[in-house]
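Here is the promised in-class demo. Please do not try to memorize the tokens; focus on the logic of going from shape to residues.
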């Protein structure tokens, strides 16, 4: 299969692109490098440096008639930042995605896999299923929900087959591939920066949430398990036209638990600064991944928090400057 991968110079996109190549697919990576890294693009992939807002470049790339599927990873991901600059997120995450969908369909590309998010849901004390109430608490989640809804209309009107994969907290690393976001907003790499001496302390935003230790609870899913889910979803779109799946381990860990585990893995004290809550942070987001387990026979292979953090620590310890080395 010939696959068009947006955001393929980023954390999850580059790892998925590499796995697709290893599986025998042809891959074209389309990335502006605004947050991605040229060095992360896997060998063997064709690379186009362009922004999704550049309609001419997008039409030229997709208009060749070569592609059979789009895998869409390109997006701004900082939920807290989305509450400070909503227009930037609506433009990049929704408007640009809509332009990509329209251009792909016009070019005859009828399989589409999108990185979505657990932020489309309302916070809940129970594990979230695909039938749980939707209700984003931040603009980031809203942009992803709107893009999912647009995809469903294109399915109904044009026959597009799409899969929306609702990530919980992507984490961990593979050999040679880890998180190197600029700016970094994810908890595990931020905590590990303290152990590396790159930051003075880890920050806890909110200690008065209705959780056992007062800090937010999240479900962490390893990069390798995300990649395998994308491959399974892509294949399943050959027969089905709408797939919506939660991608998580089903286990919830608090911010304090993550920091304590990082201390054990790194042997570093990791000082903590407690700060007020950030707007848009739900108290608890934990997946029920039973639907994708049942329908696609997917199973997370790396559910242990210590294993996830240890793999991330190995990446950050050996790549202290990320892909800039």
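The designed amino acids, position by position:
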């Amino acid at each position: 299969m010939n696959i068009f991968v947006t955001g393929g110079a980023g954390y999850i996109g580059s790892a998925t692109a590499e796995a697709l190549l290893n599986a025998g697919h042809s891959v074209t990576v389309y990335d502006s490098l605004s947050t991605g890294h040229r060095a992360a693009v896997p060998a063997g992939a064709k690379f186009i440096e362009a922004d999704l807002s550049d309609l001419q470049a997008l039409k030229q790339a997709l208009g060749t008639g070569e592609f059979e599927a789009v895998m869409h990873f390109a997006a701004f991901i900082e939920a807290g930042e989305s509450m400070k600059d909503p227009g930037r997120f609506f433009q990049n995450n929704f408007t640009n995605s809509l332009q990509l969908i329209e251009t792909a369909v016009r070019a005859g590309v009828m399989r589409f896999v999108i990185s979505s998010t657990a932020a489309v849901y309302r916070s809940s004390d129970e594990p979230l299923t695909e039938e749980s109430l939707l209700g984003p608490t931040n603009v980031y989640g809203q942009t992803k929900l709107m893009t999912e809804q647009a995809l469903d209309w294109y399915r109904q009107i044009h026959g597009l087959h799409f899969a929306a994969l609702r990530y919980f907290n992507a984490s961990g690393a593979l050999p040679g591939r880890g998180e190197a976001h600029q700016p970094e907003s994810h908890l595990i790499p931020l905590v590990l920066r303290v152990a590396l001496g790159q930051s003075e302390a880890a920050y806890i935003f909110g200690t008065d949430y209705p959780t056992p230790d007062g800090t937010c609870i999240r479900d962490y899913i390893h990069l390798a398990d995300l990649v395998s889910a994308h491959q399974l979803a892509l294949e399943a779109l050959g027969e089905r036209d709408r797939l919506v799946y939660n991608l998580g381990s089903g286990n919830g860990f608090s911010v304090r638990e993550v920091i304590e585990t990082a201390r054990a893995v790194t042997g570093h004290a990791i000082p903590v600064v407690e700060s007020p809550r950030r707007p848009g942070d739900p108290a608890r987001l934990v997946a029920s991944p039973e639907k994708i387990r049942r329908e696609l026979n997917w199973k997370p292979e790396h559910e242990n928090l210590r294993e996830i953090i240890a793999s991330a620590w190995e990446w950050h310890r050996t790549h202290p400057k990320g892909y800039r080395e």
